[in-house]
Structure formats: structure tokens, C-alpha cells
């Protein structure tokens, strides 16, 4: 009696980069179908000229830096604000996926969990990079000058990308843990507003109350703004290296938290 050998067909599993690329492709298509979201976030950049009108608190507080051009001073702050607000809403896509069943399809497929997070993150960072370039262009049209040149602009864009990574990943983790749009929106507002106004986004630390100065010194938003401002002006602030290192460390921790939150979500269903 002859034994028949049955050979199971080889199962092909795409590599991590291929998986990430497919997730990225899906998010980019979704973004282009609803392009109004990124466009609306750019409306904040249109406030560059209005922010320095006489009588506004920002304009009064900026008097000390008018000699060097407050528009140039404000551009890095608007740049970081744009990526901050965009990043804080990154988790809404995951909540939509949970409600529509797309997340269940992801988790039932042989795709690495880190690829799911990375693909969406890279998509958000591409959009943020485009927004950042537009902000720098609007700033130049409004009269800002960038003595740091191309290198300084690249540094500012890199810092904005790291800051966006932090808030995109944190928003993703909160979305996967809470699974609620209301909770995500509430927590985002509780974070982004203090992060903005307790920083040097709008005015120098010397013009702030002492307790705000103390808080802003340890605010990642301040680190990002000061690094971006230093890059565009061609003069990095004291402590630039530890500020940059702190942002990179926070980005790594936020990414780890997002992946862990996805795995925790999978175990809970």
C-alpha cells in the first residue's frame, strides 16, 4: 500500500514593512477622501497676522520681541500647535474602526500589532509634514524670516514630527483604552490647552508669572517650540540636547504605550 504524502501549501506572510505599507495606504486613502479635516486644522495658521494686532493679550505680551519680528517668533509656536492639535485627534480613527468592525478584521489577520500602529502613525506624520510646510510658507508670506536657512527649517520640521508622534500615539492609546469619542475629546482638551498656554508658544518665559515659568520649563511643548524657534533663527537654546533627548524618549514611550494598548484591547474582546 502506497502512502500518499499530502503537502500543505506554503503560507506566505508579508514582512513587517509590507504590512505597515498596506496599513499606511489604507489610512492615506481615507484621509484624501475626507481631506477637509487636515485643511480645517490649517485655519489656525491664518491667525499669524491677526495674533499681533494691537490690543490683543498676545500682542501686548509680544512687545518685548517686536524688535526681532514677532511673526518670526510666533511661527514656531503655530507650527507646534498645528501638529499638537492634529495629533490629539489621531485616535478618533481607531474608535471609528472599532465601531465599524475594521479593527476586528485587523486583529483576526496575521498582521503584527506594531505594523497596525506604525502604518497609521506614518500616515498622520505625512499629513503633519505637509501642514508644517504650509505653516512655514504662510509665515514667510506674513513677513517672517528664517536665518537658520534650510538646515534650521529641517530641524524645526523634525522636532514637529517628534512632537506629533508623541501626541498621535498617546491619542491612539487613549482611544483603544476608552473606546469612546467623548472620553477622547474630553481628555484631549484637558491636555492640549494647558500644554499650549503653559508654554512659550505665544510669549517669552520672562513675561510669564513665576509659577507658569516653572511649569513651562518641563512642558514638552516648550521644548519643541524652543528647539523649532532656535532652528529657524539659527541659534539653538541652552539645553537643546536634553530637550531633544526628552522629546525622543517621550515619543518612544508613547509608541510603546500605543502598541501595548492595542494588545490589551485584543485580549479584552
Describe this structure in words.
This protein has 269 residues and is mostly helical. Helices cover 71% and strands 0% of the residues. Mean pLDDT is 84; it is low at 49-57. It is globular. The N and C termini lie far apart (49 Å). The longest helix is centred in the middle third of the chain and has 30 residues, at 149-178. Helix 4 (70-88) runs parallel beside helix 8 (149-178) and helix 8 packs parallel to helix 12 (240-268). It has one domain (16-51, 65-268). It is found in: Cell membrane; Membrane.
Q: What is the CA-based Rg, rounded?
A: 22 Å
Strand and helix order: HHHHHHHHHHHH
* SS elements, strand count: 0
Distance between the termini: 49 Å
Task: Specify the biggest β-sheet.
Answer: none
Per DSSP, what share of the residues sits in E-state strands of 2 or more residues? Answer: under 5%
- Structural domain tally: 1
Helix content: over 70%
Helix/strand class: mainly alpha
Q: Report the mean per-residue pLDDT as an integer.
A: 84
Tally of alpha and pi helices: 12
Low-confidence stretches: 49-57
Large-scale geometry: globular
Transmembrane segments: 150-178, 190-212, 240-259
Keywords: Antibiotic resistance, Cell membrane, Membrane, Transmembrane, Transmembrane helix, Transport
Membrane topology: Multi-pass membrane protein
Subcellular location: Cell membrane; Membrane
Amino acid at each position: 500500500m502506497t502512502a500518499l504524502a499530502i503537502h500543505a501549501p506554503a503560507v506566505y506572510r508579508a514582512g513587517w514593512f509590507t504590512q505597515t505599507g498596506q496599513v499606511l495606504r489604507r489610512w492615506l486613502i481615507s484621509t484624501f477622501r475626507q481631506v477637509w479635516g487636515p485643511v480645517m486644522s490649517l485655519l489656525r495658521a491664518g491667525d499669524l497676522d491677526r495674533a499681533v494686532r494691537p490690543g490683543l493679550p498676545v500682542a501686548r505680551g509680544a512687545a518685548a520681541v517686536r524688535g526681532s519680528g514677532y511673526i518670526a517668533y510666533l511661527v514656531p509656536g503655530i507650527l507646534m500647535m498645528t501638529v499638537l492639535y492634529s495629533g490629539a485627534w489621531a485616535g478618533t480613527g481607531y474608535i471609528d474602526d472599532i465601531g465599524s468592525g475594521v479593527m476586528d478584521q485587523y486583529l483576526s489577520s496575521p498582521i503584527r500589532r506594531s505594523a497596525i500602529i506604525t502604518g497609521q502613525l506614518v500616515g498622520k506624520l505625512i499629513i503633519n509634514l505637509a501642514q508644517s510646510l504650509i505653516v512655514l510658507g504662510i509665515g514667510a508670506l506674513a513677513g517672517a524670516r528664517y536665518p537658520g536657512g534650510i538646515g534650521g527649517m529641517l530641524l524645526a520640521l523634525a522636532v514637529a514630527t517628534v512632537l506629533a508622534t508623541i501626541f498621535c500615539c498617546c491619542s491612539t492609546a487613549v482611544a483603544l483604552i476608552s473606546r469612546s469619542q467623548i472620553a477622547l475629546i474630553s481628555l484631549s482638551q484637558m491636555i492640549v490647552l494647558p500644554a499650549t498656554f503653559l508654554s512659550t508658544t505665544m510669549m517669552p518665559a520672562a513675561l510669564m508669572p513665576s509659577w507658569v515659568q516653572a511649569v513651562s520649563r518641563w512642558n514638552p511643548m516648550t521644548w519643541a517650540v524652543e528647539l523649532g524657534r532656535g532652528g529657524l533663527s539659527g541659534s539653538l537654546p541652552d539645553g537643546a540636547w536634553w530637550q531633544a533627548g526628552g522629546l525622543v524618549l517621550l515619543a518612544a514611550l508613547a509608541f510603546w504605550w500605543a502598541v501595548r494598548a492595542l494588545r490589551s484591547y485584543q485580549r479584552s474582546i
